[in-house]
Amino acid sequence: MAAPSVAVDNLNPKVVLNCEYAVRGEIVIHAQRLQQQLQTQPGSLPFDEILYCNIGNPQSLGQKPVTFFREVIALCDHPCLLEKEETKSLFSADAISRATTILASIPGRATGAYSHSQGIKGLRDAIAAGIASRDGYPANADDIFLTDGASPGVHMMMQLLIRNEKDGILCPIPQYPLYSASIALHGGALVPYYLNESTGWGLEISDLKKQLEDSRLKGIDVRALVVINPGNPTGQVLAEENQRDIVKFCKNEGLVLLADEVYQENIYVDNKKFNSFKKIARSMGYNEDDLPLVSFQSVSKGYYGECGKRGGYMEITGFSAPVREQIYKVASVNLCSNITGQILASLVMNPPKAGDASYASYKAEKDGILQSLARRAKALENAFNSLEGITCNKTEGAMYLFPQLSLPQKAIDAAKAANKAPDAFYALRLLEATGIVVVPGSGFGQVPGTWHIRCTILPQEEKIPAIISRFKAFHEGFMAAYRD
Ligand SMILES: Cc1ncc(COP(=O)(O)O)c(C=O)c1O
């Protein structure tokens, strides 16, 4: 009997043709090749290290984990430490008491056992309490689904909402490619709405309405609206007024609001603050019956940056009991999310409070990281804006800058000849000249005919001046080489 043949052309076309994920795409693969070359042939390239500014992965670039969180995890994972006298001098008192409480809430104190499909009840109680204290409105542990990062929660909602290619999801452009990829994988239609770069990546309700109406005319059943706040790759923080309009729009149009709130702790400007969409909806007097709403949160971002621990949750409100049963069923197919991630999610939503033994050191670590991120964002923004042909909006939040490149026609022609989008061509040249890895704007979507790159603000602060000078030298050389 012939061996079963597997070839790209008989794989699922939703994967092969429709799904792209630029933050780990061609440029990054090339960077990894160059990194190997640096190891095997040191000195063979014009730089001696690759600087990964392509992905929001803080600890990969040297950010230190928050001590309190790691102490609690260590104690939970190795509970016999709690019986040893030395532990009292090695771990803070509140980490010991927190780990003791958490272990008491885990059946059999077994962090190696599967949990309830939504996650350990005691941890969901703690998360609900954290949400209630953040928002000033009640939250319910039964509404929390703990997930391995925000990504599986997003996939789960897309899987539930998308029946076929006529089901549409309104998505910001530019957007984090998890959304385009996940809509493509589940076979739905991405209905784009454009963020307005000239107003600091503002979200305009008139554009939302237009896109919704146009797609309904094409027979698309628009099911949900995705909002990323603070924004990735755009770094804007929505104003409260704007959020109220979005909530009203979803209620009036019968859309599920999918609120990606993973950057809720990453805000760098004094005149903006994070408001969850649930808080906004409740403050408008809307309750569960008015609006189906999902909030995604993650342990990967914020000041904690625990990407590899894979923790997060979604809070679902405004869904009927039979629908919730189906969400539960989908969650059950994966059995449960990992327990370390679950514990971390409970910790980031309930960090030490004033008066706790760790509070002062925790606060110093948190403030140190966030203040440094704010300085790095400002330094990079100023540097981009000082260069010919580059304009860059302020990073109010999240972890990225998304500068626009006005490239000379000659560079655009050279890109075409190389069979590349102009921003991909620029990013590739930047990598080859400097070792700096950024992602071309085409990976996130952009107004046709405009070109961008996304650059994270995550390299350690002491490296920023060198990055800026390498970037400047490259850019000036590039513009000189292709000047029209
Ligand atoms: C806006 C946004 N949502 C979700 C995610 C997914 O993160 P994770 O699955 O690690 O929680 C990311 C990661 O960069 C992101 O930027």
UniProtKB/TrEMBL annotation:
**UniProt keyword Transmembrane present:** no
Q: Which domain of life is it from?
A: Eukaryota
The pathway entry for this protein reads as:
Photosynthesis; C4 acid pathway; Amino-acid degradation; L-alanine degradation via transaminase pathway; pyruvate from L-alanine: step 1/1
The GO annotation for biological process reads: L-alanine catabolic process
Concerning SUPFAM superfamilies, the annotation shows: PLP-dependent transferases
Which cofactor names does the annotation list?
A: pyridoxal 5'-phosphate
Q: Does the keyword Plastid apply?
A: no
Q: Which PANTHER family does this chain map to?
A: ALANINE AMINOTRANSFERASE, ALANINE TRANSAMINASE
**EC id:** 2.6.1.2
What is this protein's function per UniProt?
Answer: Transfer of C3 units between the cytosol of mesophyll and bundle sheath cells to maintain a nitrogen-carbon balance in the C4-dicarboxylic pathway.
Q: Which organism is it from?
A: Oryza barthii
Q: How is this protein named in the record?
A: Alanine aminotransferase 2
Enumerate the catalysed reactions.
Answer: L-alanine + 2-oxoglutarate = pyruvate + L-glutamate
Its quaternary structure?
A: Homodimer.
Keyword vocabulary terms for this entry: Aminotransferase, Pyridoxal phosphate, Transferase
What GO molecular functions are on record for this protein? L-alanine:2-oxoglutarate aminotransferase activity; pyridoxal phosphate binding
Give the family, as the similarity comment puts it. Answer: Belongs to the class-I pyridoxal-phosphate-dependent aminotransferase family. Alanine aminotransferase subfamily.
Where do the Aminotransferase class I/classII large domain residues begin and end?
A: 109-464
